[in-house]
Amino acid sequence: MAFRTLDDLGDIKGKRALVRVDLNVPMADGRVTDETRMRALLPTVLELADKGAKVLLLAHFGRPKGAKHSEMSVSMVLDSLQEVLGREIMFVPEITGDVVAQSVGILADGDIALLENTRFWSGEEKNDPELARAVAANGDFYVNDAFSAAHRAHMSTEGLAHVLPAFAGRAMEAELKALQAALGAPEHPVAAVVGGAKVSTKLDVLNNLVTQVDHLIIGGGMANTFLAARGVNVGKSLCEHDLADQANAIMDAADSAGCTVHLPYDVVTSREFRANPPIRTVNVHEVAADEMILDVGPAAVEALADVLKNCRTLVWNGPLGAFEIEPFDAATVSLARTAAALTREGSLVSVAGGGDTVAALAHAGVTEDFTFVSTAGGAFLEWMEGKPLPGVDALNLA
User: Fold this and answer.
1) Which of 71, 232, 297, 339 is the most buried (most CB within 10 A)?
2) Under 8 Å between Cβ of 397 and 3
3) CA distance 225 to 20
């Protein structure tokens, strides 16, 4: 797709930039506990400010459902945002009207303001064009730097792009380029790792991927459902037995598309779901009736590493086992480190995303070694499902 970036802006000194960012960050006891999304907006916001624009930040926080709640005000994250940016930020308790206009009048070129939670206004989630025009009245151009909210057709993610000249911010630009390299126009062979607990949450992902990739590696609790569908007794493992037909249909679709599906043939089992319990590593056909499959076995992981060595592109979403609990993190850590090493040597383009995935790669110590790690959850999944992303499509110049 073709879209404008900050490189296309020209002279913006004194111009008003409405910038959609993601500040929906986790908090505990009134403090931000993870600043990852805040750090992601640094390049765009600082570049605009340093070029003399008046930067007006738009963001949502929580699910206030069109009503004002003091505990969901974006002012809750203001202190942390100022620390991350290293700049003073004016808070504006509105998103339209005279209050915003007067605040913009006070701002000097290069100053930054944070407008109130866009979801306090019901027109945000309804993508109300009147609200979009009212917000746009205080801006000269619009920048979307919140890929994680791009799967929502909301006023601040989609509507504004039709009212003002629209540009992708640096984080959005990097995300779109990475996704294009991973599934848009990837270099083959392409492998996808899809893990997690339940097949039911990723049916659309799997159905789309078998038509896009050469190798589909299924792990986590999801693999148990596929094994059971193939007649394997998975004991007391997490398994959606009622999805056997859907699992077999995905396998059949993969065969028709020339996609090889990789399921574990050795697994790590235990009778207890806790840290460091007694475990067994067995062939999938040797799982006892009272055991749970909690990780992919070492022989299967070694074979999967060989698959990646013959691939040029990797898309990763979800862990291979119960990685939060040792020793069931072993398969995820091992394969992630293989992917990281291949990426470092330049033979593999690796793109990963999703909450558990980000945590798993951080646990493996390889986040910086992957080509791109997306912090987006729902938007990344919907992209993997092949669904249109309204916030992205609105930026498309084609």
Assistant:
1) 339
2) yes
3) 40
Q: Is 297 a catalytic residue?
A: no
**Catalytic annotation on 312?**
no
Q: What is the pLDDT of residues 62-73, one digit of tens each?
A: 999 899 998 899
Report the DSSP pairing between strands 215-218 and 190-194: parallel
Peptide bond into 189 cis (omega under 30): yes
Asked if residue 9 lies in contact with residue 141, where contact means CB atoms within 8 angstroms, the answer is yes
356: pLDDT confidence band, cut at 50, 70 and 90? confident
37 among known catalytic residues? yes
Q: Is 198 annotated in the active site?
A: yes
Task: Please state, in angstroms and rounded to a whole number, the distance separating the CA atoms of residues 323 and 359.
Answer: 9
Read off the tokens for 375.
């912090």
Looking up tokens 């919907």 gives 382
In this predicted structure, what is the pLDDT of residue 103? 97
Distance CA 160, CA 128 (A): 10
Structural domains of the chain sorted by starting position, each given as residue range(s) with its CATH number in brackets: 6-171 (3.40.50.1260), 186-384 (3.40.50.1260)
* Residue 207 among known ligand-binding residues: no
The mean pLDDT of 296-315, rounded to a whole number, is 98
Question: Side by side, which strands form the sheet with 215-218?
Answer: 260-262, 215-218, 190-194, 313-317, 349-353, 372-374
Rounded to the nearest 10 degrees, what angle do helices 244-257 and 220-229 cross at? 90
Q: Spot the catalytic one: 15, 20, 37, 170.
A: 37
